[in-house]
Amino acid sequence: MATNTASDATTHAVDGGGGPGEPTLTGLAFSDGGFDGQFLRVLDTIATGGADVGEAFITARRIPGGDREAWYAEWNALGERILADAEASLAAGHRVSAREGFLRAATYFRISGVFMYAPPMDPRFVTAHARQRDAFRRAIELMDHPFWEVAVPYEGSELDGYFATPPGPGPFPTLILVGGYDGTMEETYVAGGVAALRRGYAVLMMDGPGQGAALVERDLHFRHDWEAVVSAQIDWLVARPEVDASRIAALGRSWGGHLAPRAATAEHRLVAVIADAPQYAPGANASLLLPEEYRGDLDTGDADDLLNEAVRAGMEQSPGLDFSMGRGMLTHGCTTPVDYLRELRLYTLEGLADRVACPVLLTIGQNDPRIVDAQSLFEALTAPKTMIEFTNAKGAGEHDQAGAAALFSQRVFDWLDTVIGR
Q1: 418, pLDDT greater than 60
Q2: Which tens digit of pLDDT belongs to each residue from 253-279?
Q3: Where would I find the Xaa-Pro dipeptidyl-peptidase-like domain in this sequence (predicted)?
Q4: Partners of 153 in the β-ladder
Q5: Where are the domains of the chain?
Q6: What's the fold here for domain 1-17+146-282+347-422?
Q7: Which CATH superfamily is domain 45-144 in?
Q8: Three-state DSSP state, 120
Q9: Preceding omega of 23 cis (within 30 degrees of 0)
Q10: Contact, 279 vs 350, CB < 8 A?
Q11: Sign (positive/negative) of CA torsion 328, 291, 368, 353?
């Protein structure tokens, strides 16, 4: 298999260039980058039935920039309205309309709570999770292809998930979807699952520790050795008659762009891995979140009170830092900012990347700040590897190529089909 580090434009010349002067998909509805990024995340699900243009834009325009209370209230209200419409359609026997409504409601409930990731867990965050889960489960009851709620054995307990296949008997090549920091397994359906099913793949969607139901309902937190999660998933999959055990791959997006290749360093039953927003050593720069004068103290443990005070002061001044630190502390099970920064240092592929044996596709967005060390991961990999840069010129330069779902799916699944021999 050929390897390259070329941009998307070079690899597929029809897509055109991506120079620094190109417009970007920013400032769509908010000047606040955090709000606007989450809004684009909603829009990205339109192609797979997770949202609609008009209702999303009108809702966004009701929200004052930076107002997290209004963010929750407006998206939650939209979710309730769409849910009620779906229930009315179902009561009248209109199953397709109902299914489509339940899927959109799930997106809106989920996004309503996204800025509430912080300890202690806000009851509204718990409710938002439950509402998005319940709306999604209403939708899958109406699917026209096989779709199951499942429980995957995991370290003496189990993790909840969904397993779906295309129509037909199988066995099918199968894709494990690995979500991000603030995603849910329900979101992965519209952020990869639909595209996979359309192309004849079975799909396993599951909240691992730190994510969705595993976090909210089971109080499980992120772990750096993600192979423990993926190995449990593969053990479960290979026992299913619908699964072609020789063709199981993993797609990790956002934080999953670190977790999925990490799993492949030890779980060699994977035949391919896609890392979207690949991150080589995301914890290496944890100290940079501290004021410069305190960065040398992170490892000593001698000034934790001062460090926590400094970080919390920064969080009060920066909504972005406040969101990142609160989300990190909640999902990693840490009580202080310094505990989280130390925990984050465990997340690295340094010294491990050469253990990945299967072909790897790394996908990066030109305008995505999270992929600063993607090239380092590419260079450290010794397995067959490809890296595609998605450009601003094609509307695909944002984090996880948000806003370019069709182009992303085309590139990723064309590569995967080739790698696994379809």
Answers
A1: yes
A2: 999 999 999 999 999 999 999 999 999
A3: 164-278
A4: 158
A5: 1-17+146-282+347-422, 45-144, 286-343
A6: Rossmann fold (3.40.50)
A7: acylaminoacyl peptidase (1.20.1440.110)
A8: coil
A9: no
A10: no
A11: negative
